[in-house]
Design a protein that fits this description.
2 domains; 19 strands; globular
């Protein structure tokens, strides 16, 4: 019997996020341990008249590829994935892991080879283009598991309750809750998109960053691509980013932490970088083609995410924070940067003096919108 938690989450993903219709081919993928959530999603796709297809990741296979794989094997992407990304009508990605530190000992250079391969870049381009056009609706949904609970310094029961509240699954009708969030955020997005020149300034701890959004727009992120969600995002004009920023939360990449990240930009590219921990990984990531440029700038709006959990699916949505992604640009808002990775890094904006200005007007201050 499928639990109420998984049933509600599956209904939200299938009926609200990707809106499955009769005849749609839907891929469901994630870790094999998420069996009950797979079943719930499979059932809801069938109820909606779609054709579910799934594959599950088996524990240890990723580590074995890095242990024994040649350069050619690390770069390889099977044509089956290209067929799915070109032809399917929707994707549901179940996010969970048996061990968040499983790749800690992997050489960062090997990760850069795998992430930056031409085939991976090509697949990501197809994914982003079809996703941005609405041809391939997709959503990432969480599977509460012990590894995530441990990273968040919680037991599994407390963590599951935390997840439930961030998704509004504790409400009688979660779909209505997300529809209300969508309506409220759309008002803010409309005001942001009214600015004429769209010259942005960001201030905070060790931060004075500037960039242009000329001919770019802000996007309302309200549960269509991520669950939980809650952010308002855009993509800077790539070559316009200049100045410096220090991220107050650790950058998490494949379970590894990079602490106290400081970046300086000139003409859109990182010209200086430091970190107090994990600097070797940071350096290798910045070598991936396109990863030294900003693909996203966003403000978190989900006040149900009350603490940093080392899981960016949740953390980047935290109310009172902003995040930037190095790498692949958000095409749906005009981003053009191409990259095999899209890596979000988080900064607290609730400290005094933290603010965002557009065309000289303060639109966000000390963790709150002012428009």
């Amino acid at each position: 019997m499928i639990s109420d938690f998984y049933e509600k989450l599956a209904k939200l993903a299938v009926n609200y996020s990707i809106e499955v219709k009769k005849g749609d081919r839907i891929l469901i993928f994630g870790p094999a341990m998420a069996k009950e959530l797979f079943q719930a999603c499979y059932a809801e796709v069938v109820k909606a008249g779609g054709h579910p297809f799934y594959f599950a990741h088996i524990e240890g296979t990723e580590e074995l590829m890095y242990k024994y794989g040649s350069k050619n094997q690390l770069e390889y992407v099977d044509d089956i994935l290209f067929t799915i990304y070109r032809e399917f009508n929707g994707l549901i990605s179940i996010f969970g892991d048996y061990n968040r530190r499983k790749l800690t000992k992997v050489d960062p250079k090997l990760k850069a080879i795998r992430e930056g391969s031409p085939k991976n870049r090509e697949l990501n381009t197809i994914y982003m283009k079809r996703g941005a056009s609405g041809e391939l609706p997709w959503v990432v949904i969480p599977f509460p598991c012990n590894s995530f609970a441990q990273e968040a310094n919680m037991d599994l029961f407390s963590y599951s309750e935390f997840v439930k509240k961030t998704l509004y699954l504790d409400k009688e009708d979660p779909v209505k809750e997300w529809q209300k969030i969508d309506e409220d955020q759309e008002k803010t997005v409309s005001k942001l998109n009214e600015f004429k020149n769209r010259e942005v300034e960001v201030y905070g701890e060790d931060t004075e960053l500037k960039f242009s959004l000329k001919h770019r727009i802000w996007e309302n992120c309200s549960g269509k691509n991520n669950l939980p969600d809650g952010e308002i995002a855009t993509a800077p004009i790539e070559e316009s980013v200049s100045g410096n920023i220090r991220f107050t939360y650790p950058g998490i990449y494949q379970g590894q932490e990079i602490e106290n990240i400081y970046l300086e930009f000139k003409e859109g590219k990182v010209v200086k970088s430091t970190a107090s921990k994990g600097y070797e990984l940071l350096k290798e990531l910045l070598k991936v083609e396109g990863a030294n440029m900003v693909g996203e700038f966003a403000v978190g709006t989900n006040n149900g995410v009350t603490e940093f959990t080392k899981n960016m699916l949740f953390d980047e949505k935290m109310g009172g924070t902003m995040h930037m992604a190095l790498g692949l640009g958000l095409e749906e808002v005009g981003g053009k940067n191409q990259c095999a990775i899209h890596w979000d890094i988080l900064k607290d904006m609730r400290s005094p003096g933290s603010m965002i200005k557009i065309d000289g007007t303060v639109v966000y201050e000390n963790g709150n919108w002012t428009i």
